[in-house]
Amino acid sequence: MPPKRQPKTDIVVKIMNLFEIIGPVMTGPSSSHTAGAVRIGNAALNLFGKKPEEAVIKLYNSFSKTGKGHGTDKALIAGLLGFAPDDVRIINASREAENAGLKISVEFMGNNPDYHANTAEIILYHGSEKMVVLGKSIGGGRIVITQVDGYETKYTGEYHGLMTIHDDVPGVVSVVTGCLAQMGVNIAFMRMYRKRKGSKVMMIIDTDNPIPPAVKDILSNNRHIYKTVILPRNEDEE
User: Which residue has the higher pLDDT, 69 or 60?
Assistant: First the structure.
């Protein structure tokens, strides 16, 4: 009797599990504590939309307990400098930040039961501008940004994207999506976050293709849109 053919679904699952075991290409001992931390730093930098002059990094739970030994602090700094998870400069990230004129302070906050095991809070400053980003590393180099300036979010960086802060009024969303359509950009996902009815809205749009710089110029001229940031995709996402 011939051997039973293995279902295709089982093959797919095994391939996915193998990828999770191998993990991302990276510098450092841990996909969660180093590669994931770099990505959190990358995401915070991208959402801020400019090079910060100062950053305060707060580590919680497992990040706080073992992050020093795993280089989590260095990885987060490297992410804020725009380095990739496999960049050999990660080990010297503190010196690289000093050379770049980025003032860094790192605080190990201990346990917080409200947060994921691998959580970092990053506070960025540039002149009078400030942004607070909360992110978690969920394994295999994957991350989720769960808060941006008090807005509850689910940003992963796995797609090209666009972030806007705008008034909670009719027509703004259609202006943004219409602009993307005119530029030939296909929307994969779109999420809107607000703290209450009538407050300013944070919208994050994931797209299948890169967003042309002209989109930012066009949307910045709209009186209801206060901030527009083009978000790059994680380098090794396909």
Answer: 60
Instruction: Note whether 115 and 222 are same-domain residues.
Output: no
Where is 220: in which H helix or E strand?
helix 214-220
- The domain of 143 spans 7-156
User: What global pTM score does this model have?
Assistant: 0.83
Residue 20 shares a structural domain with residue 133: yes
Between CA 26 and CA 88 the distance in angstroms is: 9
Q: Is 191 helix (H, G, I), strand (E, B) or coil?
A: strand
* Beta strand segments in the chain, E: 54-61, 103-108, 118-126, 129-139, 142-148, 151-155, 160-166, 187-194, 201-207, 225-231
Sheet holding 225-231: strands in order across?
187-194, 201-207, 160-166, 225-231
To the nearest 10°, report the CA torsion of 82, 86, 87, 90.
Answer: 90
Domain containing residue 211: CATH number: 3.30.70.260
Question: Do residues 16 and 117 both lie within one domain?
Answer: yes
